[in-house]
Each structure stands twice: as C-alpha cells, then as structure tokens.
Amino acid sequence: MQLKSIVDFLESVAPLEYQESYDNSGLLVGEKSLDITGVLISLDCTETIVSEAIREKCNLIIAHHPILFGGIKRFNNANYVQRTVQLAIKNDIAIYAIHTNLDNVYSNGVNGKIAERLGLTNTHILRPKSNTLLKLATYCPPQNQEAIMEALFAAGAGHIGDYSNCSFSSTGMGTYKPGEGSNPAIGSVGKQSHEKEVKIEVIVPFNLQSQVINELLSVHPYEEVAYEWYPILNTNQSVGAGIVGDLPSPISDTAFLSLLKKEMNLAVIKYTPVAKMIQRVSVCGGSGQFLIEDAKRSKSDAYVTSDIKYHEFFDAENQLMICDIGHYESEKYTIDLLYDILREKFSTFAILKTRIDTNPVKYFQ
What we know:
alpha/beta; Udp-n-acetylmuramoylalanyl-d-glutamate--2,6- Diaminopimelate Ligase, Chain: A, domain 1; Alpha-Beta Plaits; 3 domains; six-stranded mixed beta sheet; five-stranded mixed beta sheet; 28% strand
C-alpha cells in the first residue's frame, strides 16, 4: 500500500485545516508514492524512535508531535532534530505528524481519549473553533431536488452538531437564455426560459468544499450549475480545543485526584486545592493554560491539562481545581488512539506501538 492512502485516511480523520497556525502537521519526510511495509506510532519522533523503526522494518513513523517546527538551514548533526531527520532520510523512512489537528477533533481526538479514560459523559468541545464552516446554496429543477440533496449529504454536507442531513429549501423562478454552443437540459438555444427552481442551502465544513462541489456537479442535470459559497461565522461544535464533561456523580477532591492518578497512570500531579465536590471536568492534552478561563466559564470543578506556570495556578481563583499532570502524561494515550484508528482501517501491513518512553522529564521520588 502506498503512503498516500494512509495520509488521505489520516487527513479525513483530522484534516490539516484544523491545525493551529503555529503548527506543522502533515507529511514531513517522504514521498506519497512510497510503498509502506510497516507503521510505527509514537508520541515524539527522535533518533531512538527512528532506530526502533529500522529494527522493526517500519518505513513510516506516525508521531503526534512534529519533529520539524521551524526552518532548518543546514544538516550537520548539530542537534537531535537534524540527526533524526537525516537518519530517517538515509533509511527511506517517512515521518508524518498529526498534532493540533488531532487535538481539535471531537470524535476520535486526543481530548476525547482523556475524557474516555476518566469516564466523562455528556461531553462537548470546550472552545469550539470558528471559521471552519461554509454555506452552499445551489439551484435545481424540483424533480432533481431529492437526488441532489442525497448526493450533498453523502459528500459530508448538512451536519449541524449531532444532527445530519440538515438543509433548507425554497422555491422560486429561475431565468436564463441558452447561447450558441450550449446544450441546455431544459429550454432551447436562443430562447428565454422561465423555470420553476428549488434553492437548496446546506452547511459544509471547509475541508470538504472540493469534495461536496464535485459531487454536486456530477449529479446536477444542468450544463452550467449555479451555486454560491458563503462564509459562516458560527463556531463548529465538532471542532475545537479541549473537552468538558461530567463524572457519573460528584466525588471529593481527593477521590478525584486518586481517580486521575490511576486512570492516567501518573507518578505525580500538581494541582490547586478547591473546597468543593468534583463532577464537571474539563480536559486538554498538552499545553492547556490558554483554556483556563474557558474551563471556569463552563462551570468546571476541575481542569486537567499540563504545562501550567506558577502564576497561572492563581487564575483558578478558588473556582476550580487545576491539575497539571505533565505534557507527556496527558498525551501518551494518543499512541493507543492512533493505533486503534489505523488497525480498524488497514490490516495488510504491520502497525506497531513504540516501546520507547520518549518523555524527557523524569521524577525523583
């Protein structure tokens, strides 16, 4: 199987358009025409990970964290980034990163995995992402309305939250005059036509724009299809940062810390104490200080994340328990998440989880 098939699948799960502006997700090393013999999944991509891929005869590494963020001006073994990339290239190993685009996916995303381990229910995105939606309006004869709507829905249009096949239709009068060389489905060349038409409006995620319009053009009866795209300012409830949900019942702060330590397999937790029972919990894998105010606005009793600085703990203001569990610790189950996603889709080659702990932070107890 070629690398392109795996890349296309991963980007259908977590579109690159969902990554943050500072990020560098996607295919970092390798060509899409590469025939894949095996996949190694890791949180980070380091020299030891590439060496493991070589030993296991895997020529694709899928890592959560991109090995390349900024530009590299030279390769002279000056740092681990250069050495890692050189080692991969020398051994024809491709590197793919799936970072904040996977963070921002609600279904099958990083934060969903944390919420699952903690047993949270009634979950939703903590900070939904904006500028990810478009509205498509198109026009067709009434007899073609149902076929066109079914095609649009099949291509991914018409989703609003937990609802699918959403649309709005209105009826009006369309006018046109076919010119020389045209082949009108309805009407005659050189004669003005007045035809009853249906206007169909649907919401489309912007990463599916090409897919949806191609499907529209393939099923529409008109030679020239009239359609318009409109930007939508609404937030996308299926894409965004963090997740908030509820424990089955309120528990004490110490009981919650014990639950968190057990389910996330933690050695230590940094936290701000709070004098309240814990039921509503917000989570964000990786560096989540930017969501503290969102967690407070959601009425969360606890917020689980990492990389909280000293002064940022004060931002809890006795309203919620901020739990810093460590960056690696908050995202390490992403390896299991990616393994399960890939195993369900592909079964013709080896998919392995790294056996190497790449966490650069250790704890002395």
